[in-house]
Amino acid sequence: MAAAESKTVHSPLVTYASMLSLLTFCPPFVILLWYTMVHADGSVAQTWYYLRQHGLQGFINIWPRPTAVAWKIIFSYAAFEAVLQLLLPGKRVEGPISPAGNRPVYKANGVAAYLVTMVTYIGLWWFGIFNPSVVYDHLGEIFSALIFGSFVFCIFLYIKGHLAPSSTDSGSCSNIIIDFYWGMELYPRIGKNFDIKVFTNCRFGMMSWAVLAVTYCIKQYETNGRIADSMLVNTILMLVYVTKFFWWEAGYWNTMDIAHDRAGFYICWGCLVWVPSVYTSPGMYLVNHPVDLGIQLALYILVAGILCIYINYDCDRQRQEFRRTNGKCLIWGRAPSKIVASYTTGSGETKTSLLLTSGWWGLSRHFHYVPEILAAFFWTVPGLFNHALPYFYVVFLTILLFDRAKRDDDRCRSKYGKYWKLYCEKVRYKIIPGIY
Ligand code: NDP
């Protein structure tokens, strides 16, 4: 059933086109992004000039080879996170019922893993055991190793999906490219307890965001003997965002990434490579661009960013609380308005879901994407406007979330039918109230 679902949502043409572009453009883009931020003053024009002068050979020359140091850093970090995921205690949490009728069970130890990771990393630096500047100095090699390593990991996922799927939420759609790209398993595990998507998306991907934000901050400090207020605002906002993420991690296990997207190249390569490189890139830029904003401007940006992260969190919290209490909660001080939507599962059972139509979810169907995009803008803007490249993440995120809103709408329309139509009549706008 899930295979059928992924088939209807993504046509083979879309899959081929996005896979080809991901394979062809994303790895070189990651390397060029790193090169421009670290070696070309953040200037696309400078990189362009270099490439025009030196051509393909010049590009091959700047692509760092994955070194032993890079592999060591990646494997130590991955092993540390895997051990924390397995061993730290946490509450037992049940995920949403899957298309095949399974209910995945998780151990909610994300906050503990996040705290242990940050304290250990900063502690290693503080006590002179390991200097995070080493990570920054080998960043190109690390991204290069991640690009190749993650590809091999996705082949492993494909083979595992065929030979040893972890649950009935798996299957082939008889097209090797679609199977590899969109994935074969919804909830792949190693053994009974090690959830692969929790590892790739949360404990490797999202955790690397916080680790690299701190790395950039420390690198600037080690280089200049001080941290510019622009870097501080950027790092604090990114850390608040990632802290919010781990605080709400069990909620993330109910979202499209986990409950609908299978573990394939699209989501896993994205979390293992794109998140550490592209998502952290505004901080990567600031290392060599210590802009002084002044206390007043720095504070305005900081407060605006924190407000956006809070609103984004509150949107997710509202939906989750509403579903958890079966609609028996207060939304902005009132009883929620809702639609009781029924749908049929893959096994033919009829079930119902509640759709919230008040609070943030009454403003538009994906209002939470607005503060998400604005928060990204606020942690980028401390770098000011000398270069466009630091804003790449904001632009990418905007395109990603507008596409995601469409994908989610399509999926919910096919799941809920007339009830989704009713929801769209009640809540007319997709993302921006009054506009779109
Ligand atoms: P959502 O949290 O928006 O979940 C969408 C699902 O919620 C729908 O598929 C539907 O699932 C259910 N739903 C939709 N409308 C309603 C409603 N009115 N009431 C109750 N349930 C509803 O998914 P996302 O994964 O897109 O977003 C989660 C968070 O992750 C957000 O904060 C977002 O900003 C962030 N995000 C960040 C990204 C990044 O790269 N930085 C990328 C993507 C998301 P069901 O089948 O259960 O009905």
Q: What's the shape?
A: globular
Q: How many individual helices?
A: 19
Name the structural class. mainly alpha
Side by side, the strands of the main sheet go 1-2
User: How helical, in percent, are the residues?
Assistant: 55-70%
List keywords for this structure.
436 residues; mainly alpha; two-stranded antiparallel ribbon
Q: Would you kindly provide a written description of the structure presented here, covering whatever features stand out?
A:
There is one protein chain. With 436 residues, the protein is mainly alpha-helical. It has a domain at 1-291. The protein is 66% helix and 6% strand. The chain has helices at residues 2-9, 12-39, 44-62, 68-87, 110-126, 133-137, 139-163, 176-182, 196-224, 229-247, 249-252, 256-259, 265-279, 281-287, 295-324, 360-363, 369-380, 392-416, 418-426; strands spanning 91-94, 105-108, 189-190, 194-195, 338-344, 350-356. The strands form three sheets. It has a two-stranded antiparallel ribbon with strand order 1-2. A two-stranded antiparallel ribbon has the order 3-4. Strand 5 (338-344) and strand 6 (350-356) form a beta hairpin. The longest helix has 30 residues, at 295-324. The protein is globular. 39% of the residues are buried. The model is unreliable at 1-8 (pLDDT under 50). Bound molecules: NADPH dihydro-nicotinamide-adenine-dinucleotide phosphate. NADPH dihydro-nicotinamide-adenine-dinucleotide phosphate binds at residues 96, 255-257, 312, 316, 319, 353, 355-356, 361, 366, 368-369, 372, 397, 400, 404, 408, 412, 415.
